C-alpha cells in the first residue's frame, strides 16, 4: 500500500554558512492511509519543522517527501492544498479578528473552487458540532474551543485526505481539550482522514495515534507503536526517559 505521507532522509535547515541551524536531520518515516501518526519530543526537537517543510513554509530542505506516492518539489500547488490541510496550535491567532465565521469559511470554499457554498458552510459547521447559529459570529464572540472548531471546519473545507495537527489543543483549557480530541477522532473515522500530529503530551498521542516517532535534537531516535509506548517498552534511552518522566508527572498529579 502506498503511504499517504512518506519522508526519507529529510534534512531541514535555517540560515547559511556559520549562521546555519540544522533543525531536522535525516528523518525517515511513513504514514499509512487512514492512520494517525504522532511526532513527540521536547520543544525545539524539530517536530513542527517537519510539518513546515511539508507545507512549503520551511523552504530549505533536502531528501524526499511524498504525498500519496507523488514526490514534492520546492513549490506547493493548489492540488496539494486540496489534499493536505493544517490545524494550527493557537485558534486565537489563526482566525482573522474582523472576519465572521461565514466569511472565513466562504472565502476558503471559494478559493478551493467549491460549489454550493451556503450548503457546504452549514454542513461544515454541523460536522464540527457548532451548527448554523454560529455562522455569523466573530472570533471575539467565540470561546477558545469554538474557535478551534471553526479552524477545523476551515481545514475540512477542501475535502482533504490528510490533516496536519500542530499541538491542536495545547492552547485550550483542559476541560475543552478532550472535546476537541474526541471531535478529531470522530472526524477521522467519518471522513477516512489521515493524521500527522505534533504533540509534547504523550497522553494526547496515546489517545489519538497508533504509531509515533520520538525526536531529539532534530533526529528521530525511535519509531514505535502506541501499544509499545503504553507497555513502556522502548529501545532508545531518550525514549525511556521521556516515558518515565511522563509517568512520573501523572503520578505526581494523582
Tell me what portion of residues adopts beta-strand conformation: 15-25%
What is the count of DSSP helices, taking H or I runs of 4+ residues? Answer: 9
What number is the mean pLDDT? 92
- The percentage helix is 25-40%
In CATH, the homologous superfamily of the domain at 5-96 and 162-169 and 179-253 goes by the name P-loop containing nucleotide triphosphate hydrolases
Distance between the termini: 43 Å
**Major beta sheet, strand line-up:** 6-7-8-3-9-10
Overall geometry? globular
SSE order, as H and E? EEEHEEHEHHHEHEHEEHH
Tally the beta strands.
Answer: 10
Assembly form of the protein: single chain
Largest sheet: 6 strands, mixed
Regions with little confidence, pLDDT below 50 for 5+ residues: 249-254
Q: Would you tell me which CATH topology of the domain at 5-96 and 162-169 and 179-253 applies?
A: Rossmann fold
The top level CATH class name of the domain at 5-96 and 162-169 and 179-253: Alpha Beta
**CATH architecture designation of the domain at 5-96 and 162-169 and 179-253:** 3-Layer(aba) Sandwich
Give the C-alpha Rg.
19 Å
Structural class estimated from helices and strands: alpha/beta
Describe this structure in words.
The chain has 254 residues and is an alpha/beta fold. It has a domain at 5-96 and 162-169 and 179-253: Rossmann fold. Helix content is 38%, strand content 25%. It has a 6-stranded mixed beta sheet, sandwiched between helices. A 4-stranded antiparallel beta sheet has the order 2-1-4-5, covered by helices on one side. Strand 7, helix 6 (174-191) and strand 8 form a beta-alpha-beta unit. Helix 3 crosses helix 4 (117-127) and helix 5 runs parallel beside helix 6 (174-191). The protein is globular and about 50 Å long.
Amino acid at each position: 500500500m502506498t503511504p499517504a505521507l512518506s519522508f526519507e532522509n529529510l534534512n531541514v535547515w535555517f540560515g547559511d554558512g556559520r549562521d546555519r541551524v540544522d533543525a531536522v536531520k535525516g528523518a525517515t518515516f511513513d504514514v499509512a492511509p487512514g492512520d494517525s501518526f504522532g511526532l513527540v519530543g521536547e520543544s525545539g526537537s524539530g517536530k513542527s519543522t517537519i510539518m513546515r517543510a511539508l507545507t512549503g513554509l520551511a523552504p530549505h530542505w533536502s531528501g524526499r517527501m511524498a504525498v500519496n506516492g507523488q514526490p514534492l518539489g520546492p513549490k506547493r500547488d493548489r492540488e496539494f492544498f486540496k489534499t493536505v490541510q493544517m490545524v494550527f496550535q493557537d485558534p486565537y491567532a489563526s482566525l482573522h479578528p474582523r472576519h465572521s465565521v461565514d466569511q472565513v469559511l466562504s472565502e476558503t470554499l471559494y478559493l478551493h473552487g467549491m460549489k454550493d457554498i451556503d450548503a457546504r458552510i452549514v454542513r461544515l459547521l454541523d460536522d464540527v458540532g457548532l451548527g448554523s447559529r454560529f455562522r455569523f459570529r466573530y472570533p471575539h464572540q467565540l470561546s477558545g474551543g469554538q474557535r478551534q472548531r471553526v479552524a477545523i471546519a476551515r481545514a475540512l473545507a477542501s475535502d482533504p485526505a490528510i490533516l496536519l495537527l500542530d499541538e491542536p489543543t495545547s492552547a485550550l483549557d483542559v476541560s475543552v481539550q478532550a472535546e476537541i480530541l474526541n471531535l478529531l477522532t470522530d472526524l477521522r473515522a467519518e471522513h477516512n482522514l489521515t493524521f500527522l500530529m505534533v504533540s509534547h503530551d504523550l497522553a494526547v498521542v496515546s489517545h489519538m495515534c497508533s504509531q509515533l516517532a520520538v525526536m531529539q535534537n532534530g533526529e528521530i531516535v525511535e519509531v514505535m507503536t502506541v501499544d509499545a509506548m503504553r507497555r513502556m517498552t522502548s529501545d532508545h534511552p531518550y525514549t525511556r526517559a521521556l516515558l518515565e518522566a511522563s509517568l512520573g508527572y501523572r503520578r505526581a498529579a494523582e
